[in-house]
Design brief:
By secondary structure, the chain is mainly alpha-helical. 83% of the residues lie in helices and 0% in strands.
Amino acid sequence: MPASQVASWLNSACDIATVIIAVVNVILLLYTFRKTNRKDEANLEKGWRIGQLKALVLDYTMKYLYAFFDDVGNATNDLRLKECPIEIKNRIEDTIQDLSRTLRLRFTDALSAIDEGLYRAILQITDNLQENLYRTAFDESSDLSNPEVFDRLVTIRISQARTEMLRLLFSYRGE
């Protein structure tokens, strides 16, 4: 075979290989673009949800969350009485129900516009706290006039509920 014919075949093979490489590059470029575009859309949605949480909830309604826990703590102080009458316990329960309702209207309901799961989790924490405080108030076997018992059964539960809510809010990633 003459050298010029071999060189011609090599040039043709090189041209074909160049075309194949170019086609593969275009296919990979399109694939990468589509994949990146989908990720960007998902990240944009997450960013929007986080922005909404900040704008609607954290900037304007966090004061209601803190006020709720402060008010619940103040409302439960009468449980420290040595012989706390049932009327006071009922008043405390009514106050906590009113405070929970107010928290829901001023704070928690705004979360449903952003994320239903977060909304339900915050509602559950509030409901659990209310239920625990109710059971504790009407449990005759607990001596809430003892500061250690009161702290363990009331103060710490209020603090744990607040911490759990804040952890949920500040760990929210828009997913």
